[in-house]
Design goal:
Number of strands of chain A: 26
Number of helices of chain A: 19
Low-confidence stretches of chain A: 275-294
Strand content of chain A: 15-25%
Radius of gyration of chain A: 28 Å
Oligomer: homodimer
Helix content of chain A: 25-40%
Shape of chain A: elongated
Number of domains of chain A: 2
Chain lengths: 641, 641
Amino acid sequence: MRTSIATVCLSGTLEEKLRAASAAGFDGVEIFEQDLVVSPQTPEDIARLARELGLSLDLYQPFRDLEGVDEATFAGNLRRAEAKFALMRRLGMSTILLCSNVGTATIDDDELVAGQLRRLGDLAERYDIDVAYEALAWGRFVSEYDRAWDLVRAADHPRIGTCLDSFHILSRRTDLETIARIPGDKIFFLQLADAPALTMDVLSWSRHHRVFPGEGSWDLTDFLARVAATGYSGPVSLEVFNDSFRQADTYRTAVDGLRSLRWLEAGVSATLNGALGVAVGSAAGSAAGGAAGAGTALDLRPLPEVAEPRAVDFVELSTEDLGTLTRQLHQLGFDFTGFHRSKPHVQLWTRGQARIVISEIDSAAIDRPWSERSPGSYLRGIGFDVDDAEAAMHRATLLHAIEVPREQSHDEEVLRGVFAPDGSEVFFHQSDGTAPAWIREFGTDTGRRASRIDHVNLAQPASHYDESVLFYTSLLNLHAQPSQDVPSPSGLVRSQVMSSADRSIRMPLNVAPVHSELVGDKARAQTSADPYPEHVAISCEDIFEAAAIARARGLDFLAVPQNYYEDLASRFDLDPDFLRRLQEHHVLYDADSAGEFLHFYTSTIGSVFFEMVERRGAYQGFGAPDAPVRLAAQYRRNRGL
Amino acid sequence: MRTSIATVCLSGTLEEKLRAASAAGFDGVEIFEQDLVVSPQTPEDIARLARELGLSLDLYQPFRDLEGVDEATFAGNLRRAEAKFALMRRLGMSTILLCSNVGTATIDDDELVAGQLRRLGDLAERYDIDVAYEALAWGRFVSEYDRAWDLVRAADHPRIGTCLDSFHILSRRTDLETIARIPGDKIFFLQLADAPALTMDVLSWSRHHRVFPGEGSWDLTDFLARVAATGYSGPVSLEVFNDSFRQADTYRTAVDGLRSLRWLEAGVSATLNGALGVAVGSAAGSAAGGAAGAGTALDLRPLPEVAEPRAVDFVELSTEDLGTLTRQLHQLGFDFTGFHRSKPHVQLWTRGQARIVISEIDSAAIDRPWSERSPGSYLRGIGFDVDDAEAAMHRATLLHAIEVPREQSHDEEVLRGVFAPDGSEVFFHQSDGTAPAWIREFGTDTGRRASRIDHVNLAQPASHYDESVLFYTSLLNLHAQPSQDVPSPSGLVRSQVMSSADRSIRMPLNVAPVHSELVGDKARAQTSADPYPEHVAISCEDIFEAAAIARARGLDFLAVPQNYYEDLASRFDLDPDFLRRLQEHHVLYDADSAGEFLHFYTSTIGSVFFEMVERRGAYQGFGAPDAPVRLAAQYRRNRGL
């Protein structure tokens, strides 16, 4: 599948965009006109750079407001078009995007529009240029792709075809059946964007909130499969207007985009092979996939199949404050299992199947600004127990994830992993069904308790949030649940859970509010993200027993206000003794029709804390009503209130 | 007018919110339940704190999902209500907000709902509590205020009244005529919020985008006047859910909120006096206003009338780099007018009526992190030429602006001003029609050219953007134009022009994109605002003459790409000689049906640069299509590209 990306998706200068697209592995780009207009490089410079980078220049865009106008206006519009055609020849480009008229159209007359398109085609012919006519969702008279196709058909000119853009089509929920009626060779271009389910005017939705395939709510696998079935053989191109992407690192966004296309390609390949689901493409499927890919003109490549992970195998924490961290683990009922036999700064603590690997950081070795004096502790990585670690790693590599450099001696378990968008390390490990093989390197697993890692709560940088969703979706087959806003004293925290279908993996992703404040004089405005600590939640069978042990061992519980328990009494019909017991043990409570959730929090060490949870019945949530209580308590602690 | 604010408007803990509301000057607060639930302070503590702070606790909110349910559910809901009534007694509170049922309502039967409200009233009577029933815009069966009022009337219970909330009413565009039919004493509470004109689902709009009166697009003066006319005598309270406010400084947001109510109060006072416009309240008006205020039960107080400013009198820049800055002013045709006679570090440069005051900063005296080594230059303040400086200053003080501390000797012009939300200093000065009186302190004004300050382009911190709009609206009578997004290589810049009706004052306010990036290891995520330089635009009569002089004097023009001029040729039917001349002089061009705009930019010094503009005809814009060209050129310069 030939991949392309519109330069408007990326931050930076035109040259930075082209270099990033090439480095990420795209085959081509769409040149967004404004990127060229503001560039000091001539069209010839750009053409040369693209050649050097191995990028095709697939589409010049946009050309606006041509058709459906009176003759005098149209004559001016043709002159405007001719200037662009001449420019495109200097760029060596052969396809231009024509958007349906949004502003100046005054005449809603199919025959007139078809005639004007035909005359544009005659002009384009002289410059050897193809015109891809697209219905913008907010076009004045032409806003549906099937109407645009009718007009292209009526224009009946070899230089006039249509451009299909998933945003303009799916945002209007137009019936997709007409796609099958368009011959593939009259689809001159294909643009893809996904979008979150928002109820807002389609123009704002389009201009600010598009995301890459797999990051939104639409079924682009189905959409691309329909287009592939027409015989379309051109590039599959991303055109995503997104406020965050526009201000994120250019190369990272490009990689994120290419990952979305590789993931989608594999999904369509699997779909066309008749497989169910989007991410299936086993060894058998691969061969068939190749055949199906050949069946369409898009030449679709599959990815190695991976099932969703079975469990969180371990969490790795890095710390400069080993004493405090291990004391807290002990208070939570973890046992010291051993030092790593060849890495003495690494140790393992376990509580049943919950495994925490701790790597000690030598504070003296850190080059750190004097202002950050408190010793750091942070969540460094997560190990996932998968069916086939090699396939998972291969898939991750094909999805352009960066491997974590890692030394291991010849007699150690091979443990490979990649960096997640937030910098966390994600490892793939294949257990034999009991304890993982790597655990021998620490001695023997002594965990007796029925305990496991219930969920891992991660903080995400706002600019890379959508990238994270796609990362976990495409690499690990996790599914994004609807997002929620959690109020905290310093703003709303956006929270969205990524989970496996059987909920054995649960990872809430959180974006903390960003402050912009004036510090000192006005010339030096500053912004800062409020610290949003990450945490590991451990499941247990008896929360009160766990809390009693923790208390006996001197755990610094996160305080829960009396008011919370009084409110609880008004919300649930709880036995007063039970309520007293909750309060006595600092345990928070939630319930729904499926079951109950009891949990307590520890104080924060560096940027990490722990939660102990007991799930009763089939409760699947995270105690959402309790999150504001935690955030308020952490806010008070941070400020010494 | 008694003022109140819902604690949910503000960031911080409940105690911080109460202290901020009191310090800002509010008479009371609404207690948002969640703020209490997460607080470690008991209800009695909160009641005591409020008493100490002189705040009344006006409304407990929200109570949800009571009515329109089967009998068993209703019995449970009454128990829930009773728990809250008991809690309110401990708080010493007497009014609760009941929101129309959004979730659990199953029965759409007026008689049933009225009966259930009546039974709630009987319960409330026992606790001496009033219930204010409000139609949420997204209520299941009750979503319009007139329907809620019908139900309150049908309930016919002294403890059951209604709550009017401008958001829920204006967002649905419900006919406002019914307000006049509600007796003032049956309106148990009044909540105000403004909102920007957005087309999105009303729930998201409400939860994230409400703003204080004067910061959005609604006519709250009319709304409040209608409620005042009913005889309503309770608090006028702000209930604003806003993502930015929730993460901004608590006290500043409280001041912003109180300012909005004071401004609104004066506007309603003027309206009820039959005056036109919203901010009129002259000496004569004041007396009548008092009478009109007495005519309503709200006791509305006017503000001193101020007309909109006549011109920008001067701009003050602070610099550590006097040589570079003054050289650039000279290149732009400014003349050195003199040093201030008693402040030798202050000097004045003029070009006709364009006056730039420069105050030199002693770099050695600045305590600055080693990382910020480049010498600073920034826009420190703006002086406005107003009709009545004393009235303007008095009005600003009544609107809770903070006065700029300023020393002046006995024989100098009194120049008073206040801090704008971005930290800029805003001065009020009353000229005698020719040169301002303060100019004598610098010698004689030598400006010969027909030149003035055309506009001042300011950067605003995102968290205080709405506050800035209200600041300039309420203090200076400026008007906010629709906002625009300007693409730059580092993201979208939100830009909105504040201007006077006759356009003699033009101030584009800009919010630059914020980056969040990972620096080093993942434990240390950072966010940074891209530097968005501010600038002063100077008008001239002949842009080519100004450019020629500037070039002869060696001005470092901001480079304009060749591609820009080629695109210009395709957009406008320009004479080739004219086009060549534009390019030769680095002059950018825009035109609309009213006229033309020619301008060039200088390089940036510190965080300031200049623009020279020539307006032809009645062109009123700012060359919006050229802004991306400038931003891209500045981006390249910043990065040495």
